[in-house]
Each structure stands twice: as C-alpha cells, then as structure tokens.
C-alpha cells in the first residue's frame, strides 16, 4: 500500500518552524533572495533527510539512490509541496525497500496515483525525479542505470505553487538501535530547479532544513535516525540509523531515561550467581529520581545483590530503607518495580516468579511533590576497585521486559518515547578509559504487550569486559 508522507512532513515542519522562519512566499511571484544555509532542524517519529524552501517556487527535484534491501533498509521519498499550513498541493515519488515490480510509485494531491512500469533490484542505482511543467502536469521519472531502463509517467495536478522540496528516508529500520551508527540509504546528485530556472543543490541558493527521527518526534526524544552532513556542494548525504548516545562513568553500566517525568519503572532479571571476587557480581539498581537542581533531591531505589539469598533485595528513599522478605536463588526470575502515586507515596514491589513469592512496601515520597521524577534507570553498579577483569567478556546481569510510564500515563520502554542514554563504566569515567562494564544494545523479546504502542527496547544485558 502506498504510504503518503507529505502531509506528515509538513505537519512536523509547522510544529518545528514558524512561517516567518521559512519565509514562504505569497500567491504572487516567487522570492529571489539567495540563501545558502542550514536552518534549525525539524523532528519526526518516522523519517529523516532534508527539505528546501525559503520563499522559492520549485518545478524540479532529482536524486540518485541505491535500491535498499527489505531488512535494514529505508523506504525513499522525494517530493515537491506547498509546505504550510497543510502541505497541499504536493507531488511525491517513492521507492520501496526490496525493489521489484510496483516498487516505484507516484502520488499527487488530492487523488492522483501511478506506478512506474519498471522492476529495480536491490543494489540497482536508481535516478528519480519530479518535473512540474507549470501547465498542470507533473512528470515522474525513474532511470535504473544498472539495468539501463528509464520510465516516465504523467499525472495531472492543475495550476499549483510548490514552495518546498524534500529528499528523505522513511521507516523500514528496526525498532531497536544498532551497536554503532549504520547507514541506511545514500542520496547522490541531488538537484533542484525553480520556476524561474535557478538551479542548485539542497544547500542553495535557498534555505534548507535537516529532519531527524526521534522516539517522540520532537527534540526531546532519543535520536533514532538522522541525515549526515551534506557533501559534494550539498548534492549528497546519507540517512543513518543511530546508536543510543553513550555517557561515561566510573561506577555503573546500563540505561537512563530522562525528562519524563516518570511515575513507574519496572524490569525483570535473572538472578546471577555470586562471583569470585564478589565485586565482579555488582548490584542491580532500578530507580526513579530527580536529576539536577538543588539538593536534597527525591529518589526511590530498589537494589538487588548478585547471588540472591535473604535480604538481597532492598529499597530506599531519602529518609527510609529496608529489605524485602523474599530470598531468591541464583537463576530465579525476579521482577521489581517502583510506582509513584503523585500524591506523596511510593510503592516498591519485588516478586520472585520462580518461587511464587512477592512483597510490596509503601513509603512516603519526600521532596517529590516539588521536584518531578525526571529520571528512570535500570543499571548494574560496580565498585571498580574491587573488580578483577575476567579472562573473557562475561555477561553478569540480564534485564528483560523493562517498562516505564510518565506522570500523564504515556507507556513505553527504556528506549522511549523519551530521551535515553547508555552508560558505560570505564576505569576513569571517561570515553578514553578502559571499559570495565557496559550494556548491550536494547532489543525486544517481550511476549505480552500490556499497552498498545509501547514500542520496543525492553531488554538488555550488562557485561564485564576483558581488558
């Protein structure tokens, strides 16, 4: 099914950029100011790339792409549109991942559709373009330069003003981040022409915007995909799937969510055996807290000591602490959670699902009424001075089914929809230090989804690293 991206593109642009910033021309003649700049970025939950505008009217846009694979690729879309306020009229040409018959499609507003009669293969070089003849017709062309086949179709659009153009990668990427930044698609030879015949690249002579995919579709979310910087005079760029940003410390490894604010966090872990030396086992930490600002700051923690046994699972707030009356054994599945009722109380729960035992403790939540709980964490803590590096990389903690909820009831995972950071434990707490422990890439094996749309990124493990 053909996916219409233009309206979503322009809606996001409206949210991120004002009319004054875009400099959209009126219904008279196109502006002629020559701008060569990259404006502040816009954000989307599903696509990344570049858009051009800034008062010009565009009759032509072209780029060349390599047809992406179904797995690990990105659907490609180029277009011309009247950017604000509703994004119509528009014309777009799409290339689906995997190629094949029917994979190159055209669409004009309101109801003009067409399929180009060619069948590109994964890896083929495909030059695609849209040309508006300024007499009511759009011409959509795709040239498979690998197979030496070119096809063009014409759709009727009427008299229009296209004051924006865009080249983007859309969706298709995994719901969880890669270990390292990974290129999804490469655009080359991108060029645009105005109604008056001015020619240029994305970089100008007109304004350009970068669009970034985040977990929330806003600047506050975790970056999932984004375009590279422009090269070749503004004609070339790639769209990259981004790894979760890393931060460095000298005491723990895992993931932290920020902004929120958060009222609930939970995870399930497999109780690891005690290790020799004991410091190599570390301690799991699940918490809600306020990060930043004056002290004292509210926090609510559950800690789990490797090896299990009596008093191995503890809870703590600013003014109270205690242990749960359960005694998990190594290998037991243990679920812990913290809930803030937004009325001055925490509920701490620990359940050994292997033994069928569970306990809940309610405590006062000092300072939480005046300082929102803007941090949710699932980590493993280590005292680096007591850690002896193992002879090979060793998994210590495994966390699954990790869930987070905000004050207003948004449900998700460690990966979002909110900003997420991956913490790496190094010998000196910096990027250049030797890695003591780190967290694996977030993945998703949740068997039952309690809340629709809560996303992926439930699972990870913490490893001690050989040095």
- Name the helicity range: under 10%
N-to-C terminal Cα separation, in Å? 51 Å
Which range does the strand content fall in? over 45%
Q: What's the assembly state of these chains? A: single chain
What is the domain total for the residues? 2
Radius of gyration: 26 Å
Task: State the CATH class of the largest domain.
Answer: Mainly Beta
**Average of the residue pLDDT scores:** 86
Could you describe the largest sheet, including whether it forms a barrel?
A: 16 strands, mixed
> How many beta-strand elements?
32
| Shape, principal axes of CA atoms | elongated
Structural class: mainly beta
The CATH topology of the largest domain is given as Jelly Rolls
Number of H/I helices? 2
Low-confidence stretches: 1-35, 446-454
**Annotated CATH architecture of the largest domain:** Sandwich
